[in-house]
């Protein structure tokens, strides 16, 4: 009897938490189908007009293209750097190792806004003025820790004797990397890449300091749109973002198991 | 076919001496086992032979050629790892084929050699499985096949049977011995199991704290241990202190059975070891030359044998172990605590130890 009650109350706690977490997202999605030009919940009449409106907006369209290209470019740049850094960190046994590891993982802990300001100052000092280049470098630095972290996690799971076995069988360093190490850490590499894509695509705090009038990302375009209008096209574009992110997360879960990756 | 020679091989990690001036020679086709407790440097020694760690000092020679500077990939030594280290993303066939693929052998030839080797280790029916779909014994055989496929003249095995149950272990030991004989491979084997070392090897090197304490045939290390450590490791549990006096060894309050070859001057002390099963007991204390009188402290029944702990007149203790075979298995214990007995043994049963 007590067991049943406990189970029921535990269930309700879990369901309650999910509702608490998901309610805002559900609201946004519902509101996006509102036919009126105001954000009201629940809507009185329904339509897809705000989706059409959002897709026509010049700033959203440019922002989406830039955000997408930026995410892909930063992901492709950060991933090989992350893989090499992780392998180096994993193998080294010298004393400065943990310090270097902390530096590499710092953007994970430091607030995004601090990372953004630091990047602004650093890139100005380096005389990098073009917004696209600044965004690319900034996003690469911001997502690098995720790549390093997921690859380090898969490396930690490997038996160090695997590479030694490959070596005794005649595989030199490069071929042992290609045939043994790379296939075994590939799930970690891809997971880091997908995390990076999502983070870059969603980022506000880092981009905020690096964009200029002509080059802006989708999240920033949404924010500036919000400043002078508050119609449901915001909800519509947000719903589309939710769908894309959710799709990537499902893909990640299907291929590698999100839980395992995050635990690593 | 390869002759292996280690000269003054040492490995130091920081201030810790893992292996210290190990020298030994293994003839072509011989089976050498490194035997010793955990942490004594067995793995480190073999890793230096395989080329996986550079020695701090010393050289490794194969067939007279100094290979100390060569990488593991260049040495072509087959190795079975303590953890097996099968490639988890490859099937049994791919695992075994790996060494040949790295040597750029033609695909048809690879297929042929892998198949014939899988037949030798009786795994042909599991060729397409992944390692995690195999039992411990099957994984073991894949690891062996993978190491053998490159036709190494030297095979190194680091406690390969550690994780197997007793029955499977014995079957694998027989198989391994058969394979190394058939292929005439020089084998270097590591274990901390005394029995395994004795039954497999042509030569046993007993290691302790980075050093080789004794190198010899299984009979030599078992029957004539030279140090207390080796004796202890071979299951000799009786240690006595004695003193030489005119060709006679005095210990435990009497003269030990002789003749013994005196080493050192009269009056010098020596430590000696005797196997408990060599100590024979007779009822009653009668002090004659070549026998010691003793009092029984404790009698313990072990099923197939009975052991007696004895106190000698000078205070040292001695163990005796009697088999309970035939009629004696049904009779009551011969002695009980407090009985006076006479202990004797064959002169050859005494091992004089180096201090
Ligand atoms: N890379 C290393 N750095 C520091 N010390 C090491 C290293 N490798 C081994 N050692 C030390 O050297 C000693 C010998 O290690 P080794 O692995 O050769 O022992 P072993 O005889 O194989 O033991 P086991 O039976 O437990 O496998 C151990 O005390 C170990 O801690
Ligand atoms: Mg070991």
Automatic annotation (TrEMBL), chain A:
The keyword Metal-binding does not apply. It is a multi-pass membrane protein. Signal peptide: none annotated. Pfam families: BPD_transp_1. InterPro entries: MetI-like, MetI-like_sf. Keywords: Cell inner membrane, Cell membrane, Membrane, Transmembrane, Transmembrane helix, Transport. Belongs to the binding-protein-dependent transport system permease family. This is ABC transporter permease.
UniProtKB/TrEMBL annotation, chain B:
GO terms for molecular function: ATP binding. Residues 4-234 form the ABC transporter domain. The keyword 4Fe-4S does not apply. Signal peptide: none annotated. Keywords: ATP-binding, Nucleotide-binding, Transport. InterPro entries: AAA+_ATPase, ABC_SmlMolc_Importer, ABC_transporter-like_ATP-bd, ABC_transporter-like_CS, Mo/tungstate-bd_C_term_dom, P-loop_NTPase, Transp-assoc_OB_typ2. PANTHER family: SPERMIDINE/PUTRESCINE IMPORT ATP-BINDING PROTEIN POTA, SPERMIDINE_PUTRESCINE IMPORT ATP-BINDING PROTEIN POTA. This is ABC transporter ATP-binding protein. It comes from Roseomonas alba. The lineage of its organism: Bacteria, Pseudomonadati, Pseudomonadota, Alphaproteobacteria, Acetobacterales.
